[in-house]
């Protein structure tokens, strides 16, 4: 229900915005919004159509550096994931053919997260070339969290 309300609101807002190619940043915004929408709907054809052939997806686990084929195989086993963009910053290279972004996302499962990445302009519009999902850790919690990670990694090395 929450998913349908969000996307209904999203579609209504999209109908009253400027044309898709008005500026590079607006086009990138729309590409990223469509990327999140396709993930929420588990529409993997639409999702991966928004990515370049050389996509790299960096997940939250240090071991998750996936190329497009491996990430697609992972995604297709899932029922999707829902991240609501809360804040986004986009920067373009001087020639306007590449861009990088960072965004704060909200998720029912994980709470606050951050996505960063790179897009390239193609003849078929903007394509996501790299996406990196992270969990921002408040500074007050960082020492405890990093200690937990170090303990976990040490156990993994010793096979415990």
TrEMBL record:
Alphabetized UniProt keyword annotations: Signal
Keyword Signal carried by entry: yes
Family annotation (InterPro entries): NTF2-like_dom_sf, SnoaL-like
Superkingdom field: Bacteria
Annotated signal peptide: 1-22
Annotated ranges, domain SnoaL-like: 28-138
Keyword Nucleotidyltransferase recorded: no
Pfam families: SnoaL_3
Protein name: Nuclear transport factor 2 family protein
Organism name: Kordiimonas pumila
């Amino acid at each position: 229900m929450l998913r349908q309300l969000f996307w209904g609101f999203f579609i209504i807002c999209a109908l009253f915005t400027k044309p898709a190619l008005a500026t590079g940043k607006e086009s990138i915004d729309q590409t990223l919004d469509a990327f999140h929408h396709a993930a929420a709907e588990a529409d993997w054809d639409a999702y991966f159509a928004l990515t370049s052939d050389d996509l790299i997806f960096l997940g939250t686990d240090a071991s998750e550096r996936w190329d497009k084929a491996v990430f697609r195989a992972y995604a297709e086993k899932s029922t999707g994931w829902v991240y609501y963009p809360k804040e986004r910053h986009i920067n373009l290279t001087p020639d306007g053919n590449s861009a990088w972004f960072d965004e704060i996302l909200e998720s029912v499962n994980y709470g606050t997260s951050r996505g960063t990445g790179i897009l390239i302009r193609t003849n078929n519009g903007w394509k996501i070339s790299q996406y990196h999902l992270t969990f921002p850790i408040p500074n007050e919690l960082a020492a405890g969290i990093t200690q937990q990670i170090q303990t976990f990694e040490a156990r993994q090395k010793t096979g415990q």
